[in-house]
Write a structure and sequence with these properties.
heterodimer, A: mainly alpha, B: mainly alpha, 84% helix
Chain lengths: 272, 238
């Protein structure tokens, strides 16, 4: 395969590629998650200070990393969408937003469950927790803006501008919250002061992180396939897809006709 | 709305940009002056929000002076949020915004003028009113001075960032609630540094770091956000 990446910049060519790649990433995610959980819950020793409660880091830390990283990837696709006006880039950004929001929510959720036994509280106004919460709000803002605009092309570019403004702000927000936190209460709940991690714990966490990566990629690819189908359902190539049947490809139904019900056979796949 | 058509005989990029800025500033100020009661409503909103907090918590003086800076800043954020539709919504409704986008002057310059007018009519009154509200919260003289300095540096940032959110939600379903969701997370650093400056002076720590960061934020926002807001306006007009 010659490395002509522009070949896959079109939804027509990317749709089957995403379909081929997604199961592989899902399988990798499942295998790595199984291995990581086995290392984390079976092999890794009990923590000297936190007991068994610490084991939630095998979920917590990977999701927190992905919450930040997915936003960067989203900003990258948004910049491409604005610079080259490519539809697929905007669709990728759209597909990543719910995944990122889910990761941020999971990080906060597991953090609360970890904080209760170790710090004695579900929530502290710790710098990282607060900035993750604001990151979740940014994700939700992008999703809300997307769903409020009917014209998908306008929604693409509006969300891209918002994502980029947010990307400039994320480091500022992080450092301002950290500054505010140190000013107010000192580092009473610092994770950085924890004793050095056993290598088995670290490797379990890394394996779980790779699992989270693979899962995010698989989820985004599956979602982008649904988005492509939803937006391109009026085009001829969707009608020729196997399984689309005769009902797809209603003539004259452009991408603006999103509000009308999708053709019957692809309805099950769009609702993914 | 009677608006003089932008003259196209301006020569030079900067001349055109400054002329566009000045024109938009004059026009929006004139329009704001003719709808003074709306501006008064926004100022009253600030005053009422500030009044609600002691009623909801306690009139005790030490507690009020502790939370006063934060309350005054949150109220400023909400007042700025409430006034954001003023920047573009009316102009979009009557088609003026489209004419501005078509004018030979650069759109970011016109947007800058509109943002400046927005701050002068909604941000500056809050800065002026803040000392009075601060007295109600029992802040002392130096703390009030730092509060006013912080608001003077911070409220323009609110107008600049808010303009992006206002432009993005032009003509969108449920724009009022949506703009809050888009803009308030971006306001967080301004809130932290602004309220932090007053906290610092009350704790006897140097305030220049907070105020310097607010000033730096103002410069960055003034350089960047007119372009982002102008891009958002063009997206909304397509």
């Amino acid at each position: 395969m010659a490395t002509n990446w522009y070949h896959y910049a079109s939804p027509v060519t990317f749709y089957p590629l995403a379909g081929r790649l997604a199961p592989w990433f899902a399988a990798i995610a499942a295998l790595l998650a199984a291995a990581g959980l086995w290392i984390g819950f079976g092999l890794a020793p009990t923590d000297a200070t936190q007991g068994e409660a610490y084991r939630i880091i095998y979920i917590h830390v990977p999701t927190a990393w992905m919450a930040m990283f997915v936003y960067l990837v989203m900003a990258f696709w948004s910049a491409l969408a604005l610079a080259f006006n490519t539809r697929l880039s905007a669709m990728m950004a759209q597909a990543l937003a719910p995944t990122g929001a889910l990761m941020a929510a999971l990080a906060l959720w597991t953090g609360a469950f970890w904080g209760r036994p170790t710090w004695g509280t579900y929530w502290a106004w710790d710098a990282r927790m607060t900035s993750t919460l604001i990151l979740l709000f940014l994700y939700l803002g992008v999703i809300a803006l997307r769903s409020a605009i009917d014209d998908p092309r306008r929604a693409d570019r509006a969300c891209a501008v918002l994502t980029l403004v947010g990307a400039v702000n994320v480091p500022i927000i992080y450092f301002s919250v950290r500054w505010w936190n140190t000013l107010h209460q000192g580092a009473s709940v610092s994770l950085t002061a924890a004793p050095k991690m056993a290598s088995l714990m670290l490797s379990g966490m890394l394996v779980m992180s790779f699992a989270a990566w693979a899962w995010c990629i698989a989820a985004a690819l599956w979602r982008v396939r649904a988005i492509i189908l939803e937006r391109e359902r009026g085009s001829a190539w969707v009608a020729t897809l196997p399984g689309m049947g005769r009902s797809a490809g209603v003539p004259g139904q452009g991408p603006k006709g999103l509000r009308s019900p999708p053709p019957s056979r692809c309805a099950t796949r769009v609702s993914d | 709305m009677t608006t003089p058509a932008p003259r196209s005989d301006d020569d030079g990029e900067t001349g055109g940009a400054l002329a566009g800025l000045a024109w938009a500033l004059r026009r929006d100020l004139k329009l704001a002056f003719r709808t003074r009661s709306e501006l008064a409503v926004q100022l009253l909103f600030y005053a009422i929000v500030v009044t609600l907090f002691p009623l909801a918590t306690t009139p005790e003086r030490t507690l009020l002076s502790t939370m006063g800076p934060g309350v005054l800043w949150v109220a400023a954020l909400l007042a700025s949020l409430l006034s954001l539709p003023r920047i573009f919504a009316l102009d979009q409704a009557d088609g003026t915004l489209e004419q501005m986008a078509l004018s030979p002057w650069p759109l970011p310059a016109i947007v800058s003028g509109k943002i400046l007018a927005h701050w002068l009519t909604t941000g500056l009154p809050v800065v002026v009113l803040a000392p009075l509200a601060a007295l109600q919260y029992g802040l002392d003289g130096i703390a009030i001075g730092v509060l006013v300095a912080g608001l003077a540096l911070g409220t323009p940032i609110l107008s600049l960032l808010g303009a992006i959110g206002a432009a993005l939600t032009l003509g969108v379903r449920g724009a009022g609630g949506l703009v809050a969701l888009l803009v308030l997370p971006l306001y967080v650093p301004v809130l932290i540094f602004g309220a932090g400056a007053v906290d610092a002076v009350r704790a006897g720590i140097a305030v220049d770091a907070n105020l310097s960061l607010l000033g730096a934020g103002l410069i960055v926002a003034a350089l960047g956000s007119p372009f982002a807001a102008a891009a958002a306006v063009r997206i909304a007009l397509d």
